[in-house]
Amino acid sequence: MADYAFIFDLNGTMIDDMEYHAKAWSDILNIDLDAALTLDQVRAEMYGKNVELLDRVFGKNYFSPEKEQQISIEKERRYQEAFRPHLSLIKGLDQFLKKTEASRISMAVGTAAIPINIDFVLDGLNIRHYFKAIVSADDVIKSKPDPETFTKCAELLHVRPENCVVFEDAPKGVEAAENAGMSCVVITTMHPQEEFKNYKNIISFIEDYTSADPQTFAKTISQKTK
């Protein structure tokens, strides 16, 4: 099935770490920067690039680019320090990646994470070899829900968008996949199914990868594109 590709978001999709991101952001925004946001308000802003989040909370150009970079790196330092003892793949994903590779389905990572966090996960879990392409926050002009992250993955894999399945955990990521013309499998680590009711590109909901079958997902999009 070399004509198909799976594109994985990273945080919340391959590792169950979103609460650690939320805690790191909450500390940065409220303790360091006096934003006075509830934890739910922080969670609602957690999509796209770090600098985009800061723009949404404080307004565009509130911080200098140098200060935004400093805040971003410090937030990731705190997140990694807290999550490192818990770093592991979501249940069943290790076998799912092996089965996907054996099925000759190309794989990519398409994420709003910055490279240091991608390295933290892929190298920390020794799974980089599965992925033929990686698109990070640094590789796109606009992040999710803009489709650029996923369309760049498809271009790098030389696979048509309609032949791609995106694995996502967040509504904005599913929206980005829909905008890219791609089908989506949603893993409900952070958001319940009802939060995705407005999206028409979802082919499956899963709690983890234990029962997920790569060939089933590939056949589903094959039937959709006939």
Automatic annotation (TrEMBL):
<dbReference type="InterPro" id="IPR023214">
    <property type="entry name" value="HAD_sf"/>
</dbReference>
<dbReference type="InterPro" id="IPR051600">
    <property type="entry name" value="Beta-PGM-like"/>
</dbReference>
<comment type="similarity">
    <text>Belongs to the HAD-like hydrolase superfamily. CbbY/CbbZ/Gph/YieH family.</text>
</comment>
<dbReference type="GO" id="GO:0003824">
    <property type="term" value="F:catalytic activity"/>
</dbReference>
<keyword id="KW-0460">Magnesium</keyword>
<dbReference type="InterPro" id="IPR036412">
    <property type="entry name" value="HAD-like_sf"/>
</dbReference>
<protein>
    <submittedName>
        <fullName>HAD family phosphatase</fullName>
    </submittedName>
</protein>
<dbReference type="GO" id="GO:0046872">
    <property type="term" value="F:metal ion binding"/>
</dbReference>
<dbReference type="InterPro" id="IPR041492">
    <property type="entry name" value="HAD_2"/>
</dbReference>
<keyword id="KW-0479">Metal-binding</keyword>
<dbReference type="Pfam" id="PF13419">
    <property type="entry name" value="HAD_2"/>
</dbReference>
<dbReference type="InterPro" id="IPR023198">
    <property type="entry name" value="PGP-like_dom2"/>
</dbReference>
<keyword id="KW-0119">Carbohydrate metabolism</keyword>
<dbReference type="InterPro" id="IPR006439">
    <property type="entry name" value="HAD-SF_hydro_IA"/>
</dbReference>
